[in-house]
Amino acid sequence: MSFFSRLRNILLYCFMVSFGFMLMLLVIVFMAIRFTPLCLFRGKKKYFERPACMNDPHLGTHGNVRTGDGDIHYVVSGPRDKPLMLFVHGFPENWHSWRHQILEFQKDYSGFKAVLTQLGHSSCVLVGHDYGGVISWYFAGAYPDLVDKLIILNAPEVSQLQEVLYSNLKQTFKSWYMFAYQIPWIPEFMVGLNFDFLRDAYACNAGNTNVTDEDIDAIKYGLCQPGALTATINYYRANNASPTRSYMRSAILCPTLLIWGMDDMYLDVVLTEGHDKYVQDLTVAKIHGANHFVNQHKPDEVNKKMREFLQGDGSEDVGNIIS
To answer: How many domains does the chain have?
Structure first.
């Protein structure tokens, strides 16, 4: 990259961080005008109570695995003697976002490496969405012997995202929040003011019956836990898209399925391009009419694409589900 290209990208990065900061302030002012202070925090207390849908025994049993930096919570479902399917959720979700896929695949299928080891598995089918997808891209490249097949939903590989961020202004402005989240304190305050935005994000107001009010409460419950907002936003801070930062792109050796909801308001479809340069066996499935949260917005279509991909080699013997 030439000096002037790098300088342009640095200036664009600084502008977008400033733009994100101003936009967050406008959102805070708008909410202060629209709602009274009491309404801003209305109903928050109830989100500290675990919603009933998160206690559904049909979705599996809960556990924790100790890693060097703390505990990782997981939910396990399906026969323990079958191969492993590992789901990794994204922002702002928790394990409950995979409920449609757990119910679909639990009859067939039984930190990352720590979870695999604790559950007695040497490899898995790895499924990731949003930031869980970014992590899954990295994990499949760094530990190819641990991933049999890779399924990614609306998540670009991080070096691909960085490249597009500075060459496609449409994606640059779609990603304004990624730049804004580099600022300390204010993003947590803005997001925590009122969680009603989640209904719009998940298209609940547009007749999406696959995401209920109780499902939204499950997301709110996760975000209301002590330190949760900072922990989730810190993913963006730790993996920022600064033009001065370079990411190593590893070859993906396992068969890979990239599922993309075409109505994603955060990530442009252009991000589906270019992965075939370093993914040896790539299948791209575009689902029209689906938003960013494609696994919840169009679960039947997603499950169908996943099953077709998984059975592509004629094998149906897949078992444990971890999310």
So the answer is: 1
Helix axes 186-193, 3-34, angle to 10 degrees: 40
With a CB cutoff of 8 Å and minimum separation 6, the contacts of 52 are 214
275 as an active site residue: the answer is no
| Model confidence pLDDT, tens digit, residues 183-230 | 999 999 888 877 777 877 887 555 677 888 899 999 999 998 888 999
Task: CATH number of the domain at 175, please.
Answer: 3.40.50.1820
Quote the strand ranges of the chain, DSSP E: 61-67, 70-77, 84-88, 124-129, 147-153, 256-261, 282-287, 320-322
| Choice among 89, 96, 292, 297 that is catalytic | 292
pLDDT band of 291, cuts 50, 70, 90 = very high
End-to-end CA distance of the chain: 40
pTM flag (> 0.85) = yes
10 Å CB burial of residue 57 (0-12, 13-18, 19+) is exposed
User: Over the stretch 50-85, which tens digit does the pLDDT of each residue have?
Assistant: 899 999 999 988 888 877 677 788 888 887 777 889
- 236 as an active site residue: the answer is yes
Enclosing domain of residue 95: 1-323
The 3-state DSSP class for residue 261 equals strand
Tell me which DSSP letter residue 35 carries: S
Over 70: is that where the pLDDT of 121 sits?
yes
Catalytically annotated residue among 130, 148, 215, 217: 130
Of 121, 129, 236, 297, the catalytic one is 236
Tokens of 47: 């989100």
